[in-house]
Amino acid sequence: MAKNNITKFESKLSAKDGFHIESTIRTHSIEIDEPNELGGTDKGPNPVELVLAALGSCQAIVLKFYGQKLGVDVKSVETSVDGEIDLGGFFGVPNVRPGFQNIKAITKVKAEGDPDKINELLKIAEERCPVLDILKNGVPVEVQIKQE
């Protein structure tokens, strides 16, 4: 596909008190924080929980979007996503990855229509979900941290 289909998404974030972070995405505001057990004030989900939510919601959107295109009546989509992290990585324990060790997503779809189209829809959900692609295949990331 041609490069002219590239769309840029952006999130701007600002650290508040403690571990509380405010994110602005387009006209939306998301409160991000750590749970009380990890020293936060629980004003919102933490960053890794947002990754899990991003995967589950992306799966649901792909199913609903392509369901319409294929003429499949998607009645409901329910997704449960969990991941395990060894917090030792965050705390600097050598040879311990700070990110997820694994992620498991279970998506239940109730759909009506041609069985072949439903099978095609389920395949598309695994192939075309951008968040699933990012998590499975990685993406080049450039981070610059500057002192002002």
Key attributes of the depicted protein:
148 residues; alpha+beta; GMP Synthetase, Chain A, domain 3; three-stranded antiparallel sheet; two-stranded antiparallel ribbon; 3 helices; globular
Detailed description of the structure:
The protein has 148 residues and is α+β, with helices and mostly antiparallel strands. It folds into 2 domains: 1-45; 46-139, 2-Layer Sandwich (GMP Synthetase, Chain A, domain 3), CATH 3.30.300.20. Helices cover 30% and strands 27% of the residues. It has 3 helices and 5 strands; from the N terminus they run βββαββαα. It has helices at residues 47-70, 115-127, 130-137, and strands at residues 12-15, 21-25, 28-32, 73-85, 100-112. Strands 1-2-3 form a 3-stranded antiparallel β-sheet, with no helix packed on it. A two-stranded antiparallel sheet has the order 4-5. Strand 2 (21-25) and strand 3 form a beta hairpin. Helix 1 runs antiparallel to helix 2 (115-127). It is globular.
